[in-house]
Amino acid sequence: MTRMLLAALLLLATFALPARASLLVLSYHDIRDDVAAKGDPDAYAVSTANFAQHLDWLRANGYRAVSVQAVLDARAGGPPLPDKAVLLTFDDGLRSVYTHAFPLLRAYGWPALVAPVTGWLDLPEGAVVPYGPRDFGRDDFLTWAQLREMRDSGLVEIGSHSHDLHRGVPGNPFGNQTPAAVTRIWSQAGGYESENAWRARIERDLRTSRDLIVRHTGHAPRVIVWPYAAYNGVANDIAGRLGMTLSFDLEGRARQADLGQQGETRVEGASLASLARLLMHRNPDVRDLAGELRRDLSLDGVRAVQVDLDYVYDDDAAQMARNVDALVQRIHDIGPSHVFLQAFADPDGDGAAEAVYFPSRHLPMRADLFNRVAWQLRTRAGVRVFAWMPVLGFELPDAALQAQLRIAASDPAEIPRLDPGDPRTRAIVSDLYAELAIAAHFDGLLFHDDAYLRDDEIPGYGGGVPAARTQALVDFTLALKAAAERWRPKLTTARNLFARPVLEPAAEAWFAQRLEPFLAAYDYTALMAMPQLEGVEAGRADAWLRGLADAVRTTPGGVEGTLFELQTVDWRAPAPLPGTTLRAQARLLSAAGIRHLGYYPDDFVGDRPPLEDAREAMSARQFPYMER
Questions:
Q1: What is the pLDDT of residues 104-142, one digit of tens each?
Q2: CA distance linking residue 236 with residue 21, whole number of Å
Q3: If you placed Cys at 484, which of 152, 188, 221, 433 could pair as Cys (CB 3.0 to 4.6 Å)?
Q4: Where do the H-state alpha helices sit in 97-228?
């Protein structure tokens, strides 16, 4: 179970300190002599020979090993880190760190961080920990004497990997096991754990781990390494109050997070972001390591499928379970990199949320479904999941409040939306995003296409100037992201953009949308590249797409930050479009230099678009397909 969770949460990562030299952090686990070159049953073991070659290659290529103290000093405004700084870390507290890694660290004079799970160091006789392909017993883990010796050498910093958080706990009524550090435990008897109970559990665990390390080594840990890279801002704040002011995860190799400076005033959960690490996985040899460190991640393309949970939901629990399995299997077979998963319920199809698929105090919960499906997609289909949520389109159960907040639209066909200029709207919607982040594990947010304003709607918003109105809506979404990131850090963002503001700059006034500020604010702009939606004649669809691609390609950062989202249904008919259309349009856009592609909707029950067409258009796997 421990390794299954780690595999589910794996994201390769490097990190850059703000206004400092870059820092590469490498994460190792077991170092053994007898690791198969490839295909070893323990995917997280690295051979001693490969580990030694890593050290040789890093030194030969200008990397300079740094200690935890050097990182803390740089963060506190002291001496900056050297160029190409590298920090070695070892998780879990396996004995091989002492028997195989430590001799090499001494030979090279390289410092490292060792973070044991303190609950595994004093296992009772006969007790075991399920660890990879076999159970590990007491002799597989470090002794306190070995930890002290490494610490006393001056090379090794001892951090905490928690006392008993390196495990899964029930994360929803369906029994999914999710990381203990960030999960509100669900029980049949009491429902979800309260926030106060969760806080007390995390503090109790980290305090136990800290006290054991102090008792046995004489030094308190200054570092928390979160099991499975699962943490949030509130948990980091708890760790910080216990003296662990530096934290590590495994996320975001190409992304940056501002750690701030030690000693600055912190809002709980808003800073102390974790440093990301590159996980040494599947026994990488020196060529694998060099290739990964030299790879330009900006060239990676996104392949996304947008999924309606409304089509998964069913009043019959057994049928809903079958729907979940069918969806997950189909996504696995298509092989996209991302799924944009609906987190709200819109049974009447008007574009506004009448309910949600997670526990909330503001809207009814149609079913506790998002957490379940998101986790299944991550662990079984191997995709990154973005929570697809409205920005303004909500229908509140309080009819009087809804009437007060609703935008007075001249066209009754417009999506029902709440006034973004009313502080009550921002408070309610921010709470919904926070509730979603508390309830589920996901990698990013897709802001729905309801985030628009017509030129006759709230004319004073943003001072009435189109560019200012556009930016005001952008700022509104960034506030929602901040509310979610308190509980789910380092979220990637995408936002739907209509095509007309890209093709006709004057259309910004009609939508309060424009490509350039979207590219500046979000990781991806999900451009609705949907010819039929825009009323384009069938014979002109290809030319229209090429024109849209040209407009994006000539916009600075457009190719890097724009995802072209194609349609698979002609809603005018309504009727599904041929799967060959999706395939042809994806090829057309790829040939035009477009890097990121997606489509909506996906009918997993009716096999629309047909699997072979969807796979050819949206698979992120190498050709020919690595898995079937």
A1: 999 999 999 999 999 999 899 899 999 989 999 999 999
A2: 24
A3: 433
A4: 102-108, 144-152, 195-217
Tokens standing for residue 247: 């934290």
Residue 275 is given by DSSP the state B
Tokens of 111: 């410092």
What are the pLDDT digits (tens) for 218-264? 999 999 999 999 999 999 999 999 999 999 988 644 333 333 433 33
Distance (Å, whole) CA 108 – CA 119: 31
Yes or no: say if 170 and 218 are a contact pair by the CB < 8 Å rule. Answer: no
Residue 132 tokens read as 């990879």
Neighbours of 99 (CB within 10 A): 15
Give alpha helix (H) positions in 162-300: 195-217, 233-241, 286-294
Which domains, ranges and CATH numbers included, belong to the chain? 2-292 (3.20.20.370), 302-618 (3.20.20.80)
> Would you call 575 helix, strand, or coil by DSSP?
strand
| 8 Å CB contact between 610 and 591 | no
**Cα of 579 vs its chain's centroid, Å:** 30
Identify residue 560 by its one-letter amino acid code.
E
DSSP lists the bridge partners of residue 17 as none
pLDDT beyond 90 at 526: yes
Rounded average pLDDT over 8-21: 38
Q: How many CB atoms lie within 10 A of CB 366?
A: 19
Nearest to 595 by CA among 532, 496, 523, 536: 523
Report d(CA 82, CA 142) in Å as an integer: 32
* Contact assessment for residue 128 and residue 105, using Cβ atoms and an 8 Å cutoff: no
* Residue in the block written with tokens 């963060």: 75
Q: How far apart are CA 458 and CA 471, in angstroms?
A: 15
* Angle at the Cα of 84 from the Cα atoms of 78 and 88, rounded to 5 degrees: 85
CA angle 230, 94, 23 (to 5 degrees): 55
Q: What distance in Å separates the CA atoms of residue 85 and residue 102, rounded to the nearest whole number? A: 20
Please give the Cα distance from 496 to 134 (Å, whole number).
46
